Description:
single chain; two-stranded antiparallel sheet; 3 helices; 2 strands; 10% strand
Amino acid sequence: MKDDRYSADWKNIATTKKQSVSWVCERCGVQCLKPGEGKGLSKGERYRLRMAVHHCDYDPGNNVPENLKALCLPCHLHYHRRQQGNVTPGQLSLSFF
């Protein structure tokens, strides 16, 4: 399912942002996994160490660098808790095994 709120080049924008911070969460400082890393970790551990790029103003169309923050998934959830912002139900959830 394609989300039209994001620009066509969002994947490249997000990857560039993640690379610019060396895949380290800008909120908590955890080292996140780069694509292809994490073999040998549990599914839950890999999920928690994935990186997302957050739109500080909650507008997925606003991709100016000052509006983007690279975060681990738990920190990304922190910003979107209580269904604030532009998250659709089920988009951000953590599964613990």
